[in-house]
Amino acid sequence: MTVRIGNCSGFYGDRISAMREMLEGGELDYLTGDYLAELTMLILGRDRMKDATRGYAKTFLRQAEDCLGLALDKGVKIVANAGGLNPRGLAEALNKLDSGAKIAYVDGDDLLDRAAELDLGSPLTANAYLGAWGIVECLNSGADVVVTGRVTDASVIVGPAAAHFGWARTDYDALAGAVVAGHVIECGTQATGGNYSFFTEIADMSRPGFPIAEIHRDGSSVITKHEGTGGAVSVGTVTAQLLYEITGGRYANPDVTARIDSAILTRESSDRVSITGVSGEAPPPTYKVSLNALGGFRNEFTMVLTGLDIEAKAALAQRQFESWLLSRPAELDWTLVRTDKPDAETEETASALLRCVARDSNPDVVGRQFSSVAIELALASYPGFSVTAPPGNGAPYGVFTAGFVDAAEIAHVAHFADGTDSVIAPSPQTRALEELEQPALPTPRPHEPTIRAPLGILAAARSGDKGGSANVGVWVRTEDEFAWLVHALTIDTLKKMLPEAEPLTVTRHVLPNLKAVNFVIDGILGQGVASQARFDPQAKGLGEWLRSRHIDIPETLAYSSGVEPAERPGGSGVEPAERPGGSGVEPAERPGGSGVEPAEQPDKKGELG
């Protein structure tokens, strides 16, 4: 006996047609959607400040207006966290569609009015991550649609499974299995080939289909997608999503702590991967709380620097700009991005970018008086001066932090279609969350010849943001590769490969069942995605940067991955490990800043010959 639970949204702004595609594409029992993220809560908070009737994901309402009748006809129940900061408001808007659907909603996550009482500071939004049991109660009451506020991402999948099978609150293994299945599909097409390192191996990436979890009574599952849709479901795509935004082997939710380290992935057939063996433990005694506050105001501009003397041009622009400012912002960050190449065949590839970001509590300090100075420099600075956009006003930015509140302090409430409601008690058992001991590592490979090559010829990666921190999960496909990876990719090695992480605290978690190591880099994203403290504020590309970095790889593994000896040191980017330097500068180029060829070298009088 299985229940088929599909997903049609991985974030607020995902494919608007996905709800109809999933309903028309094949059989489903439930259709779920995840619309919330740390940044989304800030966006919805600002919406609610402008209009108290808003604060929910408006795109979900548009999808429901188009598809609710179809869902009712097909007997598919819909569960989504699109209620955001105002699940009641969304439920009322859905009722106005006059579809005949029974609409229920879950709230109690919003702690803003109690923030001071709960020692959460003075945030703009404060929302506890609720579990699945409010959803269960709503479905058991006969609801056709359940909308929630800030539940955990997996809860929109756990709720339907628990309601369908009648699981008890202490059926931890079954609940944990559903949490893992939910974690895989809640980000939509990231489970079917999207954001996947080995995407070139997928035959059709034109329009990946959304994922489906076929969950069994014992919590085991099969991840799949509708037949005929693009993308792919493989052990690789499922592994990548399992590693997304986690820490170690324990994955805490309000209803259960899932042991991700116990999951076993097996390919059943084309586009079908089973997840078995997941064990569960009692959840922690506290609920995590998403806190967003106004951090201040920010502005930025980017200058284009072309041709020779890039660093001197950047230094001149920075020196001039800072001396011309009327008021210096509290934070002023400069970044020179060397996208330029020597002797470039196009102007674009001969150019570098100089980015300046300012932050201050006073919007005037980072407003037009800030950005206009960059334009005032236009005829007085380096040769070839240009900027990528005209000056603009400063904009507010948010700061994310995580808080924790005792589970007994949360008023988790299920509101039914008939106007009645039910208060959801916290878990009857809890267990303090502790780090797992380091698992036994495979025997190191014997010493053997190596070549210098990108990590990504063997390994895939998936990275993402967790507040101001980021995780980078790295995995390989064979036991031989894992025996190399787990000893080669240490914390020290990672810091050398990603210099931005060198001064930061990094932890490593080994997950042998997934042939993976997961790194958590504390503080690399500053105060969270909304503060935009980094070029890649959500760390989505961090894993791909790591894969592009070179490391010493055993020749036998490199060759078995498809790199032929004859390719060294050709277009594959693979170089012999003993090759000195690694700069790629040939002797004839005579390293130096001038780019002057030998025939052009000045004679003794200082004139070009």
Total count of strands: 27
Helix/strand-derived class?
alpha+beta
Strand content bin: 25-35%
**Cα-atom radius of gyration:** 27 Å
Provide the low-confidence segments as ranges.
566-609
Shape: globular
User: What distance separates the N and C termini?
Assistant: 85 Å
| Overall pLDDT score | 91
Helical fraction: 10-25%
The largest sheet, given as strand count, sense and whether it forms a barrel, is: 11 strands, mixed
User: Helix count, per DSSP?
Assistant: 14
Written description of the protein model:
This protein is an alpha+beta fold. It is 23% helix and 26% strand. The protein has an eleven-stranded mixed beta sheet, sandwiched between helices. Strands 5, 14, 15, 16, 17 and 18 form a six-stranded antiparallel beta sheet that branches. The protein is globular, with a radius of gyration of 27 Å. Residues 566-609 have low confidence and may be disordered.
